[in-house]
Design brief:
Length: 483
């Protein structure tokens, strides 16, 4: 394949990896001391998950972990981004479960033995259900419980894990979970959703301070950051003030509500005005923003698509948005429920998401231009779901996904050439898995999983990604020898 990605000269420290999440792959939902997370409980709500699916078995990574690490090694991955399950480490939000920590300790040792950098995410949406019953992220106390959980994980793994992400995509676990209702815990409460945003920010700041203190006391290297899912809010008609206002609102709620407290120590004033009726400002206590804006060593950027937005209603003949179930919900955007997202007639994935690699370039460049104190960037998730077909030869010839991945890798290279400090790319996802409210209907993996037998089969996209990594390493080796 003569793709531009193969002809790039990548930075010498560029990291190639893949990512997963505990709730989506582990299974063993009630083994090894684990108790319910909010996703285990949500999956039992009638109509919450497509097909009535649950994460009980997922793709059985808990029992097949060594096989999966060997698979990563065969693809040449530099790093594996995984999450620890709070519900496995501190089941019921009570006391630390050593058996749960031991599983992650074995995973870390397996990765290090294969020469793969462990990149740990502390929260990928699986809050212990018992804490949700005390208010979950709408309860300020949960932030302090999170810092305790983070310390427990660090005490077990901090001697071997250097790269720590506090939260993955807090927008999803706050607005989509507490306001839109499509994700666990499945609420439709704007006040609770905005409280969740602030308390997750606070939890991030508390954990960063706690973990950096522990690492410094032990004389260990540590890299701390957070992963945000960021978008380009594109006005449908850039000459229409109504569409420009809609784009400003979505940019505030989707991007700046997360970036600015973390990097600048303040919520955007226009955002606070937009959501005034929902009490976000009342949640911010003295000292909170200083705590939240602890210095970080990297920012993870998850990006799958842009969002074309309008302040006008969709036309009567517009296709309805794709939803996993018929369960009632509401807009996840408090105060901006009127904003619509008309189609730009771009290619779309099986999730009905636009495919526009140039948007990733724009986003990465914009971040560096707008935030002078921006730390180094890593694209910590990027990938696509398509309706894969197993061919007669037993292979999955996923040409669309292969093109998607390579085109977005090119977009990152273009951003680097324009000055963006991007130091790694993690394809989502290593394995087909439990895709949240979509259950097992949508496949994002570069490796196919047979959900009956759990057999793993690398797709063409996996082979192409492995070839890209190998070529990048050959180029680096050649440059080093010449140098």
């Amino acid at each position: 394949m003569n793709h531009a990605s193969f002809r790039r000269n990548w930075p010498t420290d560029f990291i190639w990896g893949s990512a997963t999440a505990a709730a989506q792959i582990e299974g063993a939902a009630h083994e090894g001391g684990k108790e319910d997370s909010i996703w285990d409980a949500f999956a039992r709500v009638p109509g919450a998950i497509a097909g009535g699916d649950t994460p009980d078995r997922a793709v059985d990574h808990y029992h097949r972990m060594p096989e999966d690490v060997a698979l990563m090694s065969s693809l040449g991955l530099d790093s594996y981004r995984f999450s620890t399950s709070w519900a496995r480490v501190v089941p019921g939000g009570r006391s630390v479960n050593q058996e749960g920590l031991d599983f992650y300790s074995r995973l870390v040792d397996e990765l290090l033995g294969a020469g793969i950098l462990p990149w740990l995410t502390l929260y990928h949406w699986d809050l212990p259900q018992a804490l949700q019953e005390q208010g979950g992220w709408a309860n300020r106390d949960t932030a302090f419980r999170f810092a305790e959980y983070a310390e427990a994980v660090y005490e077990s793994l901090g001697d071997r894990v250097t790269h720590w992400t506090t939260f993955n995509e807090p927008l999803c676990s706050s607005l989509i979970g507490y306001v839109g209702g499509e994700h666990a815990p499945g609420l439709n409460d704007p006040e609770a959703g905005l409280a969740a945003v602030h308390h997750q920010h606070l939890a991030h700041g508390l954990a960063v301070e706690r973990l950096r203190g522990l690492a410094d006391a032990a004389g260990r290297d540590i890299r701390l950051g957070i992963t945000l899912n960021l978008t380009n809010a594109v006005p449908n008609d850039p000459a229409d003030p109504v569409d420009l206002e809609a784009a400003r609102r979505i940019d505030a709620l989707w991007n700046r509500m997360y970036l600015e407290p973390l990097l600048l120590g303040a919520y955007p004033s226009d955002l606070l005005a937009d959501v005034r009726e929902f009490g976000l400002d009342a949640r911010v206590l003295p000292g909170d923003l200083q705590q939240i804006s602890q210095p970080i060593d990297f920012l993870g950027v998850n990006h799958y698509h842009d969002d074309n937005v309008s302040g006008h209603p969709l036309p009567a003949d517009a296709a309805p948005s794709l939803r996993p179930t018929d369960r009632p919900g509401r807009s996840p955007f408090p105060g901006s429920e009127h904003v619509s997202m008309p189609s730009r007639s771009l290619p779309r994935t099986a999730m009905d998401w636009e495919v526009n690699p140039a948007g990733l370039t724009s986003l990465l460049v914009r971040l560096g231009a707008e935030y002078p104190n921006l730390p180094p960037l890593y694209v910590t998730e990027n990938g696509a779901a398509y309706d894969d077909v197993v061919s007669d030869d037993g292979a999955v010839h996923d040409a669309e996904r292969t093109r998607y991945v390579l085109d977005h890798v090119d977009a990152i290279a273009e951003a680097i050439e324009q000055g963006a400090d991007v130091r790694g790319y993690f394809v989502w996802s290593l394995l087909d898995n439990f895709e949240w409210a979509w259950g097992y209907e949508k496949r994002f993996g570069i490796v196919r999983v047979d959900y009956d037998t759990f057999e793993r089969t690398p797709k063409d996209s996996a082979h192409a990604f492995a070839a890209l990594i190998a070529q990048a390493k050959r180029q680096l080796a050649a440059t080093t020898i010449v140098g």
